[in-house]
Protein backbone atom coordinates (compact mmCIF):
# COMPACT_ATOMS: atom_id res chain seq x y z
CA UNK A 1 0.00 0.00 0.00
CA UNK A 2 1.36 3.42 -0.87
CA UNK A 3 2.60 5.75 1.82
CA UNK A 4 -0.11 8.33 1.04
CA UNK A 5 -2.88 5.80 1.50
CA UNK A 6 -1.34 4.55 4.75
CA UNK A 7 -1.14 8.13 6.01
CA UNK A 8 -4.77 8.73 5.06
CA UNK A 9 -5.98 5.66 6.98
CA UNK A 10 -3.78 6.53 9.98
CA UNK A 11 -5.31 10.03 9.98
CA UNK A 12 -8.79 8.52 9.56
CA UNK A 13 -8.26 6.21 12.53
CA UNK A 14 -7.00 9.08 14.71
CA UNK A 15 -10.17 11.04 13.92
CA UNK A 16 -12.57 8.08 13.80
CA UNK A 17 -14.94 9.65 16.34
CA UNK A 18 -15.35 12.72 14.13
CA UNK A 19 -15.89 10.66 10.97
CA UNK A 20 -18.43 8.42 12.66
CA UNK A 21 -20.37 11.41 14.01
CA UNK A 22 -20.24 13.16 10.62
CA UNK A 23 -21.57 10.04 8.90
CA UNK A 24 -24.40 9.68 11.39
CA UNK A 25 -25.41 13.33 11.07
CA UNK A 26 -25.27 13.41 7.27
CA UNK A 27 -26.84 10.01 6.82
CA UNK A 28 -29.62 10.58 9.36
CA UNK A 29 -30.83 13.48 7.22
CA UNK A 30 -31.78 10.88 4.61
CA UNK A 31 -34.58 9.70 6.93
CA UNK A 32 -36.42 12.90 5.94
CA UNK A 33 -36.08 11.89 2.30
CA UNK A 34 -37.42 8.37 2.97
CA UNK A 35 -40.42 9.78 4.87
CA UNK A 36 -41.15 12.17 1.98
CA UNK A 37 -40.87 9.27 -0.46
CA UNK A 38 -43.33 7.20 1.57
CA UNK A 39 -45.88 9.94 2.26
CA UNK A 40 -45.77 11.86 -1.03
CA UNK A 41 -44.99 9.11 -3.57
CA UNK A 42 -45.53 5.53 -2.36
CA UNK A 43 -48.74 5.85 -0.32
CA UNK A 44 -50.58 8.00 -2.91
CA UNK A 45 -49.59 5.52 -5.65
CA UNK A 46 -50.69 2.46 -3.66
CA UNK A 47 -53.95 4.08 -2.50
CA UNK A 48 -54.65 5.77 -5.85
CA UNK A 49 -54.97 9.18 -4.19
CA UNK A 50 -53.39 12.54 -4.78
CA UNK A 51 -50.35 13.35 -2.65
CA UNK A 52 -50.79 15.93 0.09
CA UNK A 53 -49.68 19.47 -0.62
CA UNK A 54 -45.98 19.92 0.15
CA UNK A 55 -45.39 22.96 2.41
CA UNK A 56 -42.74 25.40 1.16
CA UNK A 57 -40.52 24.90 4.22
CA UNK A 58 -40.53 21.15 3.63
CA UNK A 59 -39.58 21.69 -0.01
CA UNK A 60 -36.58 23.71 1.13
CA UNK A 61 -35.64 21.04 3.68
CA UNK A 62 -35.77 18.36 0.98
CA UNK A 63 -33.38 20.40 -1.15
CA UNK A 64 -30.95 20.60 1.80
CA UNK A 65 -31.30 16.84 2.34
CA UNK A 66 -30.62 16.19 -1.36
CA UNK A 67 -27.41 18.21 -1.17
CA UNK A 68 -26.19 16.16 1.81
CA UNK A 69 -26.71 12.78 0.12
CA UNK A 70 -23.41 12.64 -1.76
CA UNK A 71 -21.27 13.61 1.28
CA UNK A 72 -23.31 11.11 3.33
CA UNK A 73 -22.61 8.29 0.88
CA UNK A 74 -18.90 9.10 0.78
CA UNK A 75 -18.41 9.51 4.54
CA UNK A 76 -20.42 6.41 5.41
CA UNK A 77 -18.70 4.37 2.69
CA UNK A 78 -15.38 5.22 4.26
CA UNK A 79 -16.58 3.67 7.55
CA UNK A 80 -17.24 0.35 5.82
CA UNK A 81 -14.12 0.50 3.63
CA UNK A 82 -12.14 1.03 6.83
CA UNK A 83 -13.80 -2.05 8.36
CA UNK A 84 -13.03 -4.12 5.26
CA UNK A 85 -9.48 -2.83 5.20
CA UNK A 86 -8.94 -4.25 8.68
CA UNK A 87 -10.83 -7.52 8.23
CA UNK A 88 -13.30 -8.82 5.68
CA UNK A 89 -16.87 -8.85 6.92
CA UNK A 90 -19.88 -9.94 4.87
CA UNK A 91 -22.01 -7.37 6.67
CA UNK A 92 -19.62 -4.50 5.88
CA UNK A 93 -19.35 -5.70 2.28
CA UNK A 94 -23.14 -5.84 1.74
CA UNK A 95 -23.75 -2.54 3.52
CA UNK A 96 -21.16 -0.95 1.26
CA UNK A 97 -22.98 -2.41 -1.77
CA UNK A 98 -26.39 -1.20 -0.46
CA UNK A 99 -25.00 2.24 0.24
CA UNK A 100 -23.23 2.67 -3.08
CA UNK A 101 -26.21 1.43 -5.07
CA UNK A 102 -27.46 4.95 -4.35
CA UNK A 103 -25.19 6.20 -7.15
CA UNK A 104 -27.36 4.28 -9.62
CA UNK A 105 -30.40 6.05 -8.29
CA UNK A 106 -28.76 9.49 -8.18
CA UNK A 107 -27.59 9.36 -11.77
CA UNK A 108 -30.06 6.92 -13.32
CA UNK A 109 -33.65 7.57 -12.23
CA UNK A 110 -33.91 10.64 -10.03
CA UNK A 111 -36.66 11.22 -7.48
CA UNK A 112 -38.32 13.66 -9.84
CA UNK A 113 -38.59 11.00 -12.53
CA UNK A 114 -39.88 8.46 -10.00
CA UNK A 115 -42.52 10.94 -8.85
CA UNK A 116 -43.55 11.70 -12.43
CA UNK A 117 -43.88 8.00 -13.28
CA UNK A 118 -45.65 6.82 -10.13
CA UNK A 119 -47.97 9.80 -9.78
CA UNK A 120 -48.76 9.58 -13.51
CA UNK A 121 -48.15 13.26 -14.11
CA UNK A 122 -46.40 12.79 -17.42
CA UNK A 123 -45.74 10.18 -20.02
CA UNK A 124 -42.17 9.15 -19.31
CA UNK A 125 -40.69 6.42 -21.48
CA UNK A 126 -39.56 4.44 -18.43
CA UNK A 127 -41.53 1.45 -17.14
CA UNK A 128 -43.20 1.73 -13.75
CA UNK A 129 -41.27 -1.27 -12.43
CA UNK A 130 -38.00 0.66 -12.89
CA UNK A 131 -39.39 3.43 -10.69
CA UNK A 132 -40.13 0.82 -8.01
CA UNK A 133 -36.55 -0.47 -8.31
CA UNK A 134 -35.29 3.09 -7.77
CA UNK A 135 -37.43 3.29 -4.63
CA UNK A 136 -36.08 -0.06 -3.43
CA UNK A 137 -32.56 1.28 -3.94
CA UNK A 138 -33.47 4.30 -1.78
CA UNK A 139 -34.72 2.06 1.00
CA UNK A 140 -31.55 -0.08 0.92
CA UNK A 141 -30.11 2.78 2.97
CA UNK A 142 -32.20 1.84 6.01
CA UNK A 143 -30.12 -1.10 7.31
CA UNK A 144 -26.99 1.00 6.80
CA UNK A 145 -28.57 3.92 8.70
CA UNK A 146 -29.54 1.61 11.54
CA UNK A 147 -26.05 0.08 11.72
CA UNK A 148 -24.30 3.45 11.58
CA UNK A 149 -26.47 4.93 14.34
CA UNK A 150 -26.07 1.76 16.44
CA UNK A 151 -22.29 1.92 15.95
CA UNK A 152 -22.24 5.57 17.05
CA UNK A 153 -24.37 4.84 20.14
CA UNK A 154 -22.08 1.96 21.08
CA UNK A 155 -19.01 4.12 20.57
CA UNK A 156 -20.57 6.93 22.58
CA UNK A 157 -21.39 4.49 25.40
CA UNK A 158 -17.72 3.45 25.68
CA UNK A 159 -16.63 7.09 25.71
CA UNK A 160 -18.19 7.82 29.10
Description:
- It contains 9 helices and no strands.
- The protein has helices at 3-14, 16-28, 30-47, 56-86, 90-100, 102-107, 111-118, 128-139, 141-159.
- Helix content is 81%, strand content 0%.
- The model has no long low-confidence stretch (mean pLDDT 89).
- The protein has 160 residues and is mainly alpha-helical.
- The longest helix has 31 residues, at 56-86.
Short characterization:
This protein is mostly helical. The protein contains nine helices and no strands. It is elongated and about 55 Å long.
Topology:
Layout lengths: L2 H12 L1 H13 L1 H18 L8 H31 L3 H11 L1 H6 L3 H8 L9 H12 L1 H19 L1
Helix pairs in contact: 2-4, 2-9, 3-4, 3-7, 4-5, 7-8
Shape: elongated
**Beta strand %:** under 5%
Characterize the main sheet: none
Number of strands: 0
Helicity range of the residues? over 70%
Q: In sequence order, what are the helices and strands, one letter per element?
A: HHHHHHHHH
Structural class: mainly alpha
Task: Output the radius of gyration.
Answer: 18 Å
- How many separate helices? 9
Mean pLDDT: 89
Structural key phrases:
160 residues, mainly alpha
Amino acid sequence: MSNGIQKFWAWYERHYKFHLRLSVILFSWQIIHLIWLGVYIIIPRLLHTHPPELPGALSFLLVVVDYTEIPAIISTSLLYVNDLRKKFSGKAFWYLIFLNSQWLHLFWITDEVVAQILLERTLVAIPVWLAWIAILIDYLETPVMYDTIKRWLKYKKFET
